[in-house]
From TrEMBL:
Keywords: GTP-binding, Magnesium, Metal-binding, Nucleotide-binding. Residues 198-230 are annotated as: Disordered. Mg(2+) binds at residue 36. Pfam families: Arf. Signal peptide: none annotated. GTP binds at residues 29-36, 75. GO terms for molecular function: GTP binding; GTPase activity; metal ion binding. It comes from Lotharella globosa. InterPro entries: P-loop_NTPase (IPR027417), Small_GTPase_ARF (IPR024156), Small_GTPase_ARF/SAR (IPR006689). It comes from the Eukaryota. This is Uncharacterized protein. Gene3D superfamilies: P-loop containing nucleotide triphosphate hydrolases.
Length: 230
């Protein structure tokens, strides 16, 4: 405990939440791009949501196998992450419908890698979300706009996802996560949801949890919610 009080608040928060081995995946992206939706679709475990400081939102999933940390902030991913996080695969979610905002996303991603050089060797999975919306950018367009090809030393893959409320299974997401698992030296199904879990039950739990989080946000309180798999 001693010394941890001098850490920046976001590091203190991760110290308590990330677990002994550190997260396997860091999910990054601007607000509203679909990070929470992704965590819901993965169904790996309870989602804890909190705000380490104003304007920043963090979600942590501590599944049976893997811990996942999702980080949302207003355009600034220039935080230096704890060492344990630097072994994680990086999932960058961007909103394919937001053509104007894509350069902001590119700058955020660049800032993240600039501040975390040790993450540079880690695999990068880019999720081009909201592919179900008319006029969404294709993966090729997103790859170009984020200048992923210029990141020569980094392994990356870009997949398009459509995670609407009614869509529970996403082959594209599974494909992306299998790729990430392989790159991290894990089994293909490492990040795959448990087959026995009932999707309709999940839908019910998630929609009630989302409502509850929203209500808490509106009252201006810190949000901490646990979702329990049925
Ligand atoms: N149509 C569509 N909407 C999506 C998709 N992914 C996320 N959304 C919606 O985008 C909004 C923001 O998603 P959320 O996961 O909360 O974003 P976050 O702020 O990055 O966590 C929500 O209304 C989601 O339902 C998608 O693939 N398709
Ligand atoms: Mg969110």
């Amino acid at each position: 405990m001693g010394g941890s009080s001098s850490l920046p608040s976001h590091l203190r928060a991760f110290k308590t939440l990330q677990g002994r081995r550190g997260p396997k995946i860091l999910v990054l992206g601007l607000p509203g791009v679909g990070k929470t939706k992704l965590l819901e679709a993965m169904k790996l475990g309870d989602i804890e949501s909190f705000s380490p400081f104003e304007g920043f939102m963090c979600e942590v999933v501590k599944g049976d196998r893997a811990t996942i940390v999702s980080w949302s902030c207003q355009g600034d991913l220039r935080l230096t992450w704890p060492k344990k996080c630097r072994k994680a695969g990086v999932v960058f979610v961007c909103d394919s419908t937001d053509r104007k905002g894509i350069s902001k996303a590119r700058i955020s991603l660049q800032k993240f890698f600039d501040a975390n050089h040790t993450c540079s060797g880690q695999p990068l999975l880019v999720l081009a979300s909201k592919q179900d919306v008319d006029g969404a950018m294709t993966c090729a367009e997103v790859t170009k706009a984020l200048q992923l090809d210029l990141m020569r030393t980094r392994r990356f893959k870009c997949v398009g996802t459509e995670l609407q409320d009614s869509v529970i299974d996403s082959p594209e997401l599974e494909d992306g996560l299998s790729w990430l698992s392989r790159q991290l030296g894990l089994s293909e199904d490492y990040f795959r949801k448990k087959k026995s879990q009932s999707s309709s039950a999940f839908r019910r739990v998630f929609s009630s949890q989302r409502r509850s989080i929203q209500e808490k946000k509106e009252t201006g309180r810190m949000t901490t919610r646990a979702r329990s798999a049925p």
